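Continuing from yesterday's entry. The apo prediction looked reasonable, so today I'm repeating it with adenosine-5'-triphosphate included to see how the binding region is handled. Same sequence as before; SMILES copied from the compound registry.
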Amino acid sequence: MIAAPTLSSAFLDAPGQSLPSPLLKLREQRGKALVDMPLPTRKTENWKYSSRYLKLDEALAKTLPSAGKSGPGLAVAGYHVVFHNGVMVPEASDYPDIAGIEIKRFVDLDDDEARELAERLDNTLDSKAAQMARLNTARFEDGLLIRLQADAVLDQPLYIICETDASSAGTAYPRIYVDAGRHSQITLVEEHITSGSEPAMTNTVTEFALSEGAHVTSVRLSLDGDTVQHIGATGARLHANARFENHTVGFGGPLRRHDLQVRLEGPGAECRLNGVVVTQGKQHYDNHTTIEHVAPHCNSEETYRNIAADESHAIFNGRIHIHPDAQKSNANMSNKNLLLSTGAEIDTKPELEIYADDVKCAHGATVGQLNDESIFYLVSRGIGRQEARALLSMAFINELVEQIPVDSVKDTVQARLNRFFDQTFDEA
Amino acid sequence: MLSIKNLHATVEGEEILKGINLEIKAGEVHAIMGPNGSGKSTLSQVLAGNETFTVTEGEVLLDGENLLDLATEERAREGIFLAFQYPVEIPGVSNMQFLRTAVNAQRHHRGEPEMNAAEFMKLARETSKQVDLDPSFLKRGVNEGFSGGEKKRNEILQALLLQPRLAILDETDSGLDIDALKVVADGVNALKSKDRAILMVTHYQRLLNHIVPDFVHVLAGGQIVKSGGRELALELEDRGYSWLGVNEETTAS
Ligand SMILES: Nc1ncnc2c1ncn2[C@@H]1O[C@H](COP(=O)(O)OP(=O)(O)OP(=O)(O)O)[C@@H](O)[C@H]1O
Ligand SMILES: [Mg+2]
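Holo prediction written out below.
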């Protein structure tokens, strides 16, 4: 019998870096726990459809170097923080000093702050479900801590641009931790981009801790290049009456995996999770979401749409877990999928585990194709066949794109989608 | 302008059109009447290029050019317009975006510059008022949740914006209240010109009071069984179809 593949030890000899010692200790501890970590295979339930896209070659074991430079094209109007290969670049970042809001890189934390953070990192994530995120905690070189005091409100969205510089092979480990105090509010846009074209990986973890009544809106945009594998995890824990909103927009790649885990732990907490994914060529994208209704009287709304063209492969796995005490839970999940070619594949799996009796829970998943009657109607007005298909595909996801709460991101997404559909329907 | 010769068409192996002959000249208005299921919509859809139907015999010439060789979008760009009996709802595509894309596709075909959003918005708003549709309908999804009558007016709105050479109106009058009928008729009359032709399918004489046809044809069992002037419509209204040897219940099968 062939032994199950395990993580190469090369991934575990992390270079020493300038992190404060409590964080270095945490890294080391987590690294030790990963020795002989089995890698996902076809038989690993939560990687069933995706393990064949995961290519953890030795070359990726190297942490991508960060020369502290900022890549090209990062001019963002508004507040922004730039990460280059997982290390923050202060010269490329720009955000104001606002009372009650701390924005600090991990390497700048003093020992006390670092100790507190080390205790909290990973607490929002179920590391069994997001096993690859554990590698991030063993390897991060820097990170961003955002702390909002009670009632603090960030008046504009904060962009966090994570650039993977793939001029050489290796992996980047961006890390973000947001601690949103009582009744604080923040909108965060996390944008993943690539420069260079060597095989590379980005392994990213973002965590949100929401105190009572906090409102966090997060937009997550994956625009990584086509030589970059992307493994990301986002975790959020909500206390009473907190609200978490996430808009995920993803374009396919050689491997794209995002685990989103939300825990509703206080009565009245609510979340909205929207996701749009488009894939073409031989691209892949896999979204795994989990919503844990732990406390009673919580609401969750989830809407994901996938469009797969050519021979691409999109996966959606949505789990809703209603704990025994979570009476009066309200959970809605909808996943609709559009196949643009017979060679494309979409796998969708809603998973409901309901252990409370007084709950409202609705879910639906469909996989369909473009409607011939609609195409005929459009072309009968002189609209070209390919343009008609593009219009209808766009219509399939438009509602979600419209809901993206930051206009500049909405525009970027629209432009990217137009380009995607131009390419997809550019007749061979 | 349009010359239909011995046109046969099938759907799922069943023959629906069984040798249609029809000559339409520029400037003319033709009405087609006939029992349910006789093939009126099939003829309309075949002319527009719906691939659900297979043409098995015959030819259709548009100004001497073989229409059946053209794809649907090319026919539209050559000036064929079909107002659908059952307009399709397309949620997620705004009516405005749809209309502008269509107008610009046709302008592009004619080598004219595209209209920008502002220019087009102005035109569309004016035209929507002409068919008594509140401009707010431009923002909604194409036909999404429109009432039957609103859908019909939206079809005429499209015809007015696209200015086709041959407008085929498949029961655009059905389901309209008296005022809406007048609005639609005014819209169609606004389309009439010496360079254009109109082919309208209808069950009712009342539309023909507003839009006076030059010719009336009876389509039954997949063939045109009688043609005449506008007085034929009056006669059909009086006497039904049975005197023509056509069973009202007859279908193409
Ligand atoms: N897609 C289809 N599949 C099967 N049969 C069809 C299809 N389309 C039309 N038919 C059949 O073809 C025949 C003619 O239909 P058509 O819609 O052309 O009639 P019509 O004259 O427009 O009737 P009405 O006055 O009711 O609108 C009918 O028997 C109809 O059932
Ligand atoms: Mg009909």
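Comparison notes:
- The helical segments of chain A are 21-33, 111-120, 133-139, 372-379, 385-402, 407-425.
- Residues 372-428 of chain A form one domain.
Will overlay with the apo model tomorrow.
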